[in-house]
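Async update (no meeting this week)

Hi team, since we skipped the sync, here's where things stand on the single-chain job. The sequence we agreed to prioritize is pasted below, unchanged from the tracker. I ran it this morning and attached the output directly underneath so nobody has to dig for it. Comments welcome in thread, and please keep replies under the output.
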Amino acid sequence: MATTILAIESSCDETSASICVDGSILSNHIAGQAIHEKYGGVVPELASRAHMQNILPVVSEALKTANCRLDDLDAIAFTQSPGLIGSLLVGTQFAKSLALALDKPLIAVHHMQAHVLANLIDDPKPSFPFLCLTVSGGHTQIVLCESAAKMKVLGETIDDAAGEAFDKTAKLLGLPYPGGPLIDKYAQQGDPKRFSFPEPKIPGLNFSFSGLKTAVLYFLQNAGTSQVYKEEFLASEEEKQQFITENLEDICASVQQRIVSILLNKLQTAAIQTGIKEICIAGGVSANSGLRKAFKELGEKKNWNTYIPAFQYCTDNAGMIAVTGYYKYMAKDFSDLSVTASARASW
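Output:
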């Protein structure tokens, strides 16, 4: 008999619902929140209010697209952690209420584990064990995935995430929010070797992006003069803006190339240390064309089997929550109604 899961994702500023039947995604609807664009970033209170407006229509649309009724559901899965607490609470309370009303099992899902398992949605799928480089606005991690239920973080950022480095660079360049996709867009027309940015020397498999963000800041403040990264050499605002205008594509390409090299150098080290050749990437930054291209090229060079989720499963979405919920359902890993949302939670 088929197992049907309704999944809800509300960790940040996108409300999403998905229907999964026996591990296959039948619908994956996402409602964005354009209101944050004028503030240059996500405003938590506005995000939670928008989730309350969007969640019922999104769930209804997901059910309709999948030709599914509430009575057909076997369980309700939801993002329990991590994320913005106000946003998480909307999805958590909705899922708990629906599970109580329908007398169906409740499945709490860790958002980052779901990003990893997004690689199990479409064929070809990686074989266990596999490594996953998970990169998003709030997280940068290398994860060893031994099974759908057993994962271990081998390395993670000690300060800022890769997505933050993209977004901060975009803000410094005067690009509108969200800036990461615009960096990618301009980088495709630029020369990645035009400007050189430092790569942090962090031991082991951990990452750091705070130094790169500072280097970009000083580089722009000095209008690129002799690759200066020191605060005391400052150009005028007019000189800075002219420099950005004349070199925008090359700046974006050079910064993106450095972020990608930091990520893939660590991933390559992890592959060597573990001997694993089943390698995945996931998370919002995995939608970046520069990262996807470089990852595939490195995989061919190193004889890896590489996997990248479809674009709709890279950014925050309920499809990845649904497939994770399916595997947890098969393992009878359920939560009771006392479960609460958590802004931060260990794996």
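Quick observations from my side:
Residues 127-308 form a domain with the Nucleotidyltransferase; domain 5 fold (CATH 3.30.420.40).
The chain has two domains: 4-117+313-330, 127-308.
Reply here if anything looks off.
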